[in-house]
C-alpha cells in the first residue's frame, strides 16, 4: 500500500484480502466494460455501413436493377429488395448493440458501488479513475 501514497505519508489503513478482491473485481469489471464498448463501436460501424449502402440504393432507385455482390458473385436485384436486405441485416446488429449497452450500464452500476465502498475505506490512497 505504501506505493500508492505520496512520499512522506504513511498509510494507517490495513488492506485485507477482501479489499484486494474488491479492487481486482473492479479491475475486471473495468476491463470487460472497455471490451464491450469496443465491440459496440464495431457493431455501430457495421450498422452505419449498411445504412450508407441503403442510402446509396435509394439515390440510385431510378435505375432498373442494381448489382448486389453476394460472396464472390454479383446478382441483379431491384432497389426495394436491396433495402429490405439491408434492413434485415441491420436489425440483429441493433439488437446486439442494445443488449451490450444494457450490460455496460449494469457493469457501471457495479463499478460505482465498488468505487464508493473502496473510496470510503481508502480515501485518496486509492485511485480507481482511468
Descriptive notes:
GO terms for molecular function: unfolded protein binding. It contains two helices and two strands; from the N terminus they run αββα. The chain is mainly α and 130 residues long. The chain has one domain (17-124): Helix Hairpins (Orthogonal Bundle). Helix 1 runs antiparallel to helix 2 (79-122). The chain is rod-shaped, with a radius of gyration of 25 Å.
Number of strands: 2
Fill in the CATH topology: Helix Hairpins
The overall pLDDT, averaged over residues, is: 87
Strand content: 5-15%
- Whole-Å distance between the termini? 19 Å
Using the CA coordinates, give the radius of gyration.
Answer: 25 Å
What is the tally of helical segments?
A: 2
Helical/strand content category: mainly alpha
CATH class: Mainly Alpha
Keywords: Chaperone, Coiled coil
GO molecular function: unfolded protein binding
Coiled coil: 90-117
Family: Belongs to the prefoldin subunit beta family.
